[in-house]
Amino acid sequence: MKTGASFRLFLRCLAICAAAMATVSPGQLQTPAPLRHCRLNVVVTRGAMGAINTADAQAAGTVWMQSIGRRRGFQLDTRFEILPNVEAIQARVKESSADFVILAVTEYFQLAPLGLLQPFVAVAHGNAGAAQSYHLIVNRGATASSIAGLRGKSVITCSNSDLDLGRIWTETLLNDEHLGRADRFFGSVTHASKPSSACLPVFFGKADACVVNAAGWEILSEMNPQMAVKLRLIASSPAYLEALGCVHVNFREFREELLQGLLELHRDPEGRQLLMVFKAGSVVAITDRDAASARELWARYINFAGRPEPVKAAELQISGRP
Length: 322
Prior knowledge:
The chain is α/β, with parallel strands linked by helices. Helices cover about 40% and strands about 25% of the residues. It has 13 helices and 13 strands. The strands form 3 sheets. A 6-stranded mixed β-sheet has the order 2-1-3-12-4-13. Strands 8-7-9-6-10 form a 5-stranded mixed β-sheet, with helices on both faces. Strands 5-11 form a two-stranded antiparallel ribbon. Helix 3 runs antiparallel to helix 12 and helix 6 packs across helix 13.
């Protein structure tokens, strides 16, 4: 190409670029807008933590909140706290200093009458979803075909939270059959924080029965097919929501961004780390209706037994806690 033609082509390119620049508004040439500041106070009850390491949960939660905030245009002033009981949570909710609350479902039932908490999300474990059923399991060689056949036997119950929902379901089974309370009907009742710590003693004949949730049983059966061969289910519960995350009704500014961030936890490294700490596969959106079956179970239980005490440390001798 001749020099004159090249120069004319260069001028034409300059003209095109100038025309393009003329269509850009002055605002589009400015630096990105500064991040908006927003408060996000997260509180978790000790009862909803179960065997989860609290320091790991606080660290992973804080890192994730800062990361998701920046990605969505916010500079979050965050606080992640683990409180000892529902009374401490209630005080924070009443003074509007708890924006996102993670608690056991029965704790939610106690706070729901305040009208200040809206069910928001729950974690899902495996293919069982957020609401999970519980299984009463015995060794295949056992003669028991129902809970009535376990009189005087040793039973291990397992739960993701300090509130042992599996044991509460077992108590209602006994009450429905007019068999009395668990501590008098069974020879012994102990608690485990991991499904393997509940099922393996039954597998090896060290205990007579166990109660585990569907997700735990599914994982154990996949990892060790002999579990499904040597153990059998003699009763299964409806699906119950065990723990949930709620937002304060006055928390608005970062509300939708928080929901989307929670639903997409599995898509980013910080979110996957948080899911791993909470031993969850994903997070799903929920409403109060998702807690209906757990509410019915809780109402039936306290009608004949009263409110239970949280699981004591002395009951965790086979829990497998680190």
